[in-house]
Amino acid sequence: MTEPLSLNRQQIAQLVARDIPEGAAVNLGIGMPTLVSDYLPDDREILLHSENGILGMGPAATGDAVDPDLINASRVAVTLIPGASITEHTISFAMMRGGHLDYSILGGFQVAANGDLANWMTDAPDAIPAIGGAMDLAVGARNVLVMMEHTTKSGEPKLLEACAYPLTAAGVVDTVYTNWAIVDVKNGRFVLRSMVAGMTLDALQRSTGARLWVEGGVETIVLDASGRACIQS
User: Fold this and answer.
1) What is the pLDDT of residue 142?
2) Tell me, what's the pLDDT at 31?
3) CB under 8 Å to 226, separation ≥6 — which residues?
4) What beta strand segments (E) does the chain contain?
5) What separation in angstroms does the CA of 19 have from each of 41, 43, 44, 105, 193?
6) In terms of C-beta density within 10 A (0-12 exposed, 13-18 middle, 19 or more buried), how is residue 56 classed?
7) 55 Cα distance to chain centroid
8) Which residues of the chain have pLDDT under 50?
9) In this structure, how many other beta carbons lie within 10 angstroms of the beta carbon of residue 116?
10) Which NCBIfam families would you find in this protein's record (predicted)?
């Protein structure tokens, strides 16, 4: 039997980037979400916000474009698009809290079927030791997208009936993008939108801690000739 495809961090970011609509104002959170800036379609005008005070962030900087004073939330050197602005934290957080963001893209440890998000904890070796601005981003944006692995390294589900970790925010998640699937949160349940080539619904369900519902068809995630993740037409 062919092993199912497992997306890497860049390929998950490619799927998220394709779903961001024209004209959206988007915050990219710490970690995997910052990769999304590298894959946004060139024909869409999308305004990227970074918690540390950038509005109009471009892709990651390379070569002579690297400025150590110009970094994103993951401390990676970035570029600016024409017309970008730099602010201090009070203005940046006012954008986040004031409902000015269309999308907040965050990493996650756990997501519950009702949309609860847990993306911080203090007793894990790779954890951020405080909630930071994640709470503000999760409740302030109109749409919340979460990027994460479908299971832990030991195979435990991260999509659950209820989060076991401290909550970042309650009932906020709209869609989860994992290495195996795209899952929407609708009416208190997980609705499967897409899954990777070679994966079966039964196998995906066994790795998910809550029921996966199917409404209509389920799209297939494949890799094109260049290794880019895309949805099979």
Assistant:
1) 96
2) 87
3) none
4) 25-28, 47-50, 54-60, 78-86, 103-107, 110-112, 117-118, 143-147, 159-160, 175-177, 181-186, 189-196, 212-213, 219-223, 229-231
5) 10, 13, 11, 12, 13
6) middle
7) 19
8) none
9) 21
10) pcaJ_scoB_fam (TIGR02428)
Sign of the CA dihedral 72, 74, 77, 81? negative
Q: What is the pLDDT of residue 128?
A: 56
Name the one residue in this structure whose structure tokens are 């409404």.
215
Q: Is 140 helix (H, G, I), strand (E, B) or coil?
A: helix
What Rg, from alpha-carbon coordinates, does the chain have? Answer: 17
> How many angstroms separate the CA atoms of 74 and 15, rounded?
20
Rounded to two decimals, the pTM is 0.92
What are the tokens at 223? 């890799």
Residue 232, judged by CB atoms within 10 A of its CB (0-12, 13-18, 19+), counts as exposed
The catalytic residues are 51
Which residue's entry shows tokens 């990676």? 76
In angstroms, the CA 141 to CA 16 distance is 16
Domain residues of the chain, as ranges? 9-178
Task: Report which of 99, 93, 178 is spatially closest to residue 143, judged by C-alpha positions.
Answer: 99
Number of H helices, E strands in the chain: 4, 15
- 172: helix, strand or coil: coil
> Which residue has 């389920």 as its token pair?
218
Query: Residue 72 has what pLDDT?
Result: 85
Q: Which overall architecture, per CATH, does domain 9-178 show?
A: 3-Layer(aba) Sandwich (3.40)
